[in-house]
Amino acid sequence: MSRESEPEAGTDPELSGVLSAGLRAELIAFRRDLHMHPELGKCEFRTTGAIKARLERAGLSPRILALGTGLVCDIGPLGSGTDSGTEARPMLALRADIDALPIPDTKTVPYRSTVKDMAHACGHDVHTAVVLGAGLVLAELAQRGLLPHPVRLIFQPAEEVLPGGAPDVIDCGVLDGVGRIIGVHCDPKVDAGRIGLRPGAITSACDRLEVSLNGAGGHTARPHLTTDLVTAAAKVATDVPALLARRVDARSGMAVTWGRLETGHACNVIPQHAELSGTVRCLDLQAWREAPDLVHAAIDEVATLHRAKSEIDYIRGVPPVVNEPDVTDLLRRAMTARRGPSSIEDTEQSLGGEDFSWYLEQVPGAMARLGVRRVGDTVRRDLHCGDFDVDESAIAVGVELFTAAALLDVNRP
């Protein structure tokens, strides 16, 4: 049975009747349209236009970001803040990411991607529908005089492109006047109708690492006269992670994992060049800040031991998402108000990266894991896979979570 058909445990009368069956159906259709027309980071022009048009139909005034894609939209009572001569109260921001991934959609559904080798395989179409739906509900509440303080919607491009689109969006001023920010991320391990919460770090830092090794090559009959780059590359691949494991507190969870190693073209020729690519993941924020220097030193040490010259391109990705306890509690209280305490589960810290973390470097905030698994489904599914899909009743759950959080936040002392 779909969670959407279960009776709600809501105690907030302001939401009663606003999230209608018609709006639920519209949001599902909107999500399916985005799913059929995915766009990669910094190219989300159709997606941006569709969001803008729907918000304008609701009487709102969304603003496309100077980046060309993504948009921001404020919702609130007329005359709030400085316009009425009173001090403006910091807004609550609701954030969605809008880009897709460069992988094929392998599902057999009517709303399968129509774009070759592109798919919403991480649920950003769901995130977008959730924030759009929350915006439409909050706009109606504002028209009825039930939203005493403004809320900001942020539709962010390029989350999947390191270091994420969040830094560019922040540079556009979207956090000006924002006091707290919340977001959700689809979780295929959590049933639809439920959310996962965790105060503190909920994701990992994720950086990219590109290493070039160079040296005098030669004949495999005389390795002692060469820089044996194949051995040097192999040692960097195996010894650098081992060195870091002894130089960093094990509780920080720092891990260097290689995804590519290329060198050589003939069995009897020692090459002059080798390349390695990988990721650096870290569970601890302070360790992430120290990671570039530590990784550089370890690679240089191993390369020098094998007479190889190293060139290192350490590409900053994202810090961990560290949920602020008070904002996490806001999400807990909001979900309890709508769906009851049994709809919340504790969640573990993942090794995935999320550029929502950049917002939390500026303002307090929290991200919840939005359950999208169909109740009773026993098939193990994951994000970033071509067959990823969701129980669409999760969209309404996300809308309820955000709208209830906005009402609770604006009514706090």
Distance between the termini: 39 Å
CATH superfamily of the largest domain: Zn peptidases
Low-confidence stretches: 1-11, 78-86
Proportion of helical residues: 25-40%
Rg computed from alpha carbons, rounded to a whole number of angstroms: 24 Å
Structural class: alpha/beta
Question: Can you put this structure into words, describing what you see?
Answer:
The chain contains nine helices and 16 strands. It has 413 residues and is an alpha/beta fold. It folds into two domains: 290 residues, Zn peptidases (Aminopeptidase); 114 residues, Alpha-Beta Plaits (2-Layer Sandwich). The strands form four sheets. It has an eight-stranded mixed β-sheet with strand order 1-2-4-3-5-16-6-15, with helices on one face. A four-stranded antiparallel β-sheet has the order 10-12-8-13, covered by helices on one side. It has a two-stranded antiparallel ribbon with strand order 7-14. 47% of the residues are buried.
List keywords for this structure.
413 residues; alpha/beta; Aminopeptidase; Alpha-Beta Plaits; disordered N terminus
In short:
Helix content is 32%, strand content 23%. By secondary structure, the protein is of the alpha/beta class. Helix 3 links the parallel strand 3 (91-97) and strand 4.
SSE layout:
Blueprint: H1 21-36, H2 45-57, E1 63-64, E2 71-75, E3 91-97, H3 124-143, E4 151-156, H4 166-171, E5 178-191, E6 195-197, E7 200-201, E8 205-214, E9 218-219, H5 229-247, E10 255-263, E11 269-270, E12 273-282, H6 285-305, E13 309-318, E14 322-323, H7 325-339, E15 344-346, H8 357-360, E16 365-373, H9 393-410
Parallel strand pairs: 3-4, 3-5, 5-16, 6-15
Antiparallel strand pairs: 1-2, 2-4, 6-16, 7-14, 8-12, 8-13, 9-11, 10-12
Helix pairs in contact: 1-3, 3-9, 5-6, 7-9
